[in-house]
Amino acid sequence: MLPNNAHFFRIFFPLYPCTKPFPDFTPKKTSSSTGKKKSIYSVLFSGMSALPQCCICLDDFTNPVSIPCGHRFCLGCIGEYWRLHGACQCPLCMTCFPISIKWVHSYRVCATFTHFYTTSPIRPQLKTKPTLHNVAPREENQAALRAAPDMASPSLHSVNMDTPILIKHHLYCSICLDLFENPVTTHCGHSFCQSCLGRNLHLNDLTCPLCKKHLRGNPQVNIILRSLIQELKKAQESKPEEYSGALGEVACDVCTERKLKAHKSCLLCLASYCETHLQTHTSAERLKGHRLVAPVDDLDGRACLTHGRPLELYSRAEGRCVCALCMEEGHEVVSTETEWDKKKGELGSSLAEMQERILERERKVEEIRESMDLCKAQLDRERREIDSVFEVVMTTVEETRREALRPLEKRQQDMEREAEELTQELQKEIRQLRDIIGQLEDVANLEDHIHFLQTFPSLSGLGDGRDWTEVSLDTEVSFGTMRSSRSAMMEKIEQELEKLSSIELERILKFAVDVTLDPDTANIQLVLSEDGKEVRDGGKIQDLPDRPDRFDHFGSVLGHNMLTSGRSYWEVDVGNKTGWDLGIARGDANRKGQLSVNPTNGYWAIVHYNGDQYGALGDPPFLLSLMEKPQKVGVFVDYEEGLVSFYDVEAKAHIYSFTGYSFTGEMYPYLSPHLLNGKKNSDPLVITEIG
In this protein, which residues make up the domain named B30.2/SPRY (predicted)? Predict the structure, then answer.
């Protein structure tokens, strides 16, 4: 609910603009009964229940203005309201606005107001008594408005210099809402900080930020206002702090009316004093020897509970503070200052000793942590090495299994072939015997004895055939091959298992080499970086000279590094590529035409293709099953061992190893980024540093 005056305010000052100009009126007439000035509104609206008033001062409008939300107030009232509340907010609808708000003057009123003004019966009297009413358009009354007193808050005009708290409200700039800094006053009477007004005039027209009057000339520094602010700041700086009761504050025990914060506490007087009441301890000779300390909240704990005297002595026998009357014969008693110095020295030694013990234990903790990290790293390396060994063992077992099964399969095939041959031969003789039996039966049925005797001699030898009595299928199985395969398998497994007992602290990273790519070997479609660390498929053929050592068909490239002995290790960032080849190649391996990448042709490499397929390019090639897609692949070569191993660097997992080869001649790093594949495989292969 709005107050009555605000409700009336909404009626006569709607949010939409009206059509008639709004004349300004300066109140001149004084009532004979009350002595209070009456405005022209009271005359024009004498027959109505309420007058249009400002809802802040509850008086007739003085220099009315409209703010962005549509509500209207006196210019001085709304400015003072904002200064006091520290925010640009409408008192009615509580809408907030930016601090640098532009004023919008109310030049129009509603039709009802205009009707009352034009039809008022006293309007002719107003024309005949201009000295009382002085009705004039707003544009012709600018000088009177500038000379009129500020009626925004009449109560503030009665504030004298003895009330600096109220005066302080008048010393705030209406732009920055802070105390004036080098205040200047415009010719319209408003004051601002010199810098605030300068910024406002730079961003807007040369008008007053409050009344929007055009400014003439340069605003002058208000010396009186500046002096007032300086005096106010000095008074605030020199003003003693009052006791607020906050945690850690101690009140002066001498102050009566207004408690101030204590500056020191006296251990002999057992009282706390502010700066004013502490002066006696510095001026009076009898008090100069008192011990002053920082303000103490509980001074009762500094007094003897038995005698009420200060605890200024320390009994080493009793181990407590005592007063002069508590001293007992035979007890060693010293002053509290002496014992304090002694205990403080002991405390310093204890603190130093404790600090040294802390440092010692921290060093031990760091030593344990470093040992744990080294041990963990060593265990991880050994775990990978063991995985690699057992990978070879499992591969050997699988190969041996196949070798052991191969003779059985061959023997089975031979037995099946032999049985088939014998069966076919027996079936053939069976058919022949059946034919002979048929012929004999026909002869036996002959009634012509002459013909029978003539035919019988020719049939007497037909029943002769192969003697199958000693013929049988050889089902014996030879175990010689199985035994030899088992022996070879066990020998190889033992060789691999021997590596477990000879694992050294030096790991693969120790053998890192700085690999760079050789542009003379790169296919003409490949693009190499200037530092020779990256290679990608450029998607088009480049104009490069043909060389004997250049790959002319395969999109491959070799490294500069020649491997002829020892161990070498490098890492390649493969990222999210959908295809690549990585490995090593023999220096004399063929690089022309369609290549068959395998160890027989001098290539030891693994391949990634079709986005998610991995394989080892062996004889024959076979698929690899990886738990996750590698982002960085490490390549390790042991020239003497004939070993090429591949690792997933981030997963720290072994991918595959070529073993049991005898390397001769020069070996070089081998890389192939594969084709672009519609830009799905456009990322380069990057040889990374090993830190």
Answer: 495-691
Range with lowest mean pLDDT among 119-133, 391-405, 566-580, 588-602: 119-133
Considering the chain, what percentage of its residues have pLDDT values greater than 70?
A: 74
User: Quick check: 609 and 623 in contact, CB under 8 A?
Assistant: no
Taken in order 497, 502, 505, 510, the sign of the CA dihedral is negative
Residue 684's closest CA among 565, 577, 571? 577
Task: Tell me, letter by letter, the H, E, C secondary structure of 399-414.
Answer: HHHHHHHHHHHHHHHH
pLDDT score, position 83: 78
Q: Measuring CA to CA, which residue among 483, 480, 485, 478 is closest to residue 400?
A: 485
The domains spanning 53-116 and 168-235 adopt the same CATH topology = yes
The dihedral of CA 650, 656, 661, 664: what is its sign?
negative
Return the closest-CA partner of residue 535 out of 551, 546, 547: 551
| Every domain of the chain and the residues it spans | 53-116, 168-235, 355-440, 512-688
User: What is the layout of strands, in order, in the sheet containing 220-221?
Assistant: 191-193, 183-185, 220-221
Pick the CATH number of 512-688 from 1.10.150.20, 3.40.50.300, 2.60.120.920, 1.10.287.130: 2.60.120.920
The angle that helices 336-444 and 449-459 make with each other, rounded to 10 degrees, is 150
The CATH T-level fold of domain 53-116 is Herpes Virus-1 (3.30.40)
- pTM to 2 decimal places: 0.34
Closest CA to 186 of 156, 225, 220, 135: 220
**Stretch 187-207: mean pLDDT:** 83
Chain mean position to CA 656: 38
Q: Do residues 621 and 615 lie in contact, with contact meaning Cβ atoms separated by under 8 Å?
A: yes
Is the Cβ–Cβ distance between 335 and 313 less than 8 Å? yes
pLDDT tens digits for 341-361?
A: 888 888 888 999 999 999 999
| DSSP strands (E only) in 304-380 | 313-315, 320-322, 333-335
CATH architecture group of domain 168-235: 2-Layer Sandwich (3.30)
Residues in the chain: 691
Across 385-512, where does the E strand assignment appear? Answer: none
Q: How far is 23 from 64, CA to CA, in rounded Å?
A: 11
- What whole-number distance in Å separates Cα of residue 392 and Cα of residue 385? 11
User: Which pair of tokens denotes residue 362?
Assistant: 């921290």
For residues 378-389, one letter each, b for 16 or more C-beta atoms within 10 angstroms of the residue's C-beta and e for the rest, the string is: eeebeebbeebb
